[in-house]
Amino acid sequence: MYFETGHGQIAVNVPNLDQLKARVSDHFNARDGFALATINLDHLVKLDRDTAFYGAYASQDLVVADGNPIVWLSKIAGKPVELLPGSELVVPLAEWATDAKCTIALFGSTQEALMDSSEALRQAVPGAQIVCMIAPEFGFDPTGPAAKDALETIEASGASLCFLALGAPKQERFAAYGREIAPSVGFASIGAGLDFLAGAQTRAPLIVRKVAMEWLWRMMGNPKRLAKRYFDCATIMPSQMRAAFRLRQKDAL
Q: Around Cβ 149, how many Cβ atoms within 10 Å?
């Protein structure tokens, strides 16, 4: 399944959790790095506007669907993919890394949240080894000198998996840069995943998520920051739906 942006196509190339486990485990067993992104409508909006973000996304090795609209569009296109939110991948990824005897790094958020999330992760995944935790300073440049220093520190730690909790587009740009500077590390962009794990942020109740209304729950909690974001997301849905219908028709020919 692929999506059209103003700069080119971005494909969801891992359709479900089983395939994600197989591909990530192959990388871990080979001690080969990767970059994992979780695409949603907000990312599609940013991809239209931000050339650097598009370049970073195009270099991701693994892309999964984060958000029900992405799943709905995939079904319209006749190429269904599974919903795999980044915040729900933290524990599975840590389990797969631990099974492969790989160690873990945490990057982003705040030092307090990293300490809390590392403890929560160790409790959720017995045997998980967290060997590096870095909370970057405010205004962090994901491709600047501080990013290079951080990536060299992460690679020197021996970590094979690094969770990135910076938010888009910084985390995807940092991951893309990491593929160059720290090629042995697998970077997983998980947004607020560590904050949810640490309890620094509260996720929507399960019933709200099941009826695909997490976006509304989040917006009600922070309307100033999120109302414009979700409005922009809504405005691109018609064009994305048309593109999905065209993709389905093209395959039917």
A: 12
pLDDT tens profile 46-59: 999 999 999 999 99
CA quadruple 105, 151, 201, 231: dihedral sign: negative
Using CA of residue 66, residue 71, residue 73, residue 77, what is the dihedral sign?
Answer: positive
On whether the CB atoms of residues 95 and 28 are closer than 8 A, the answer is no
Contact status, residue 163 vs residue 193, Cβ threshold 8 Å: yes
Nearest CA to 229 out of 75, 120, 67 is that of 67
Distance between CA atoms of residues 94 and 135, nearest Å: 19
Report the b/e string of 121-147 with b at 16+ CB within 10 A.
beeebeebebebbbbbeeebebbeeeb
For residue 70, give every residue at least 6 positions away whose Cβ sits within 8 Å of its Cβ, in sequence order, or none: 3, 12, 39, 40, 41, 81, 83
Degrees (nearest 5) of the Cα angle 66, 47, 217?
A: 40
Q: Hey, which bits of 87-191 come out as E strands?
A: 104-108, 130-134, 161-165, 186-189
Amino acid identity for residue 1 in this structure: M
At 83-101, the pLDDT tens digits run: 999 999 999 999 999 999 9
Phi, psi of 147 (to 5 degrees): -65, -45
0.90 surpassed by pTM: yes
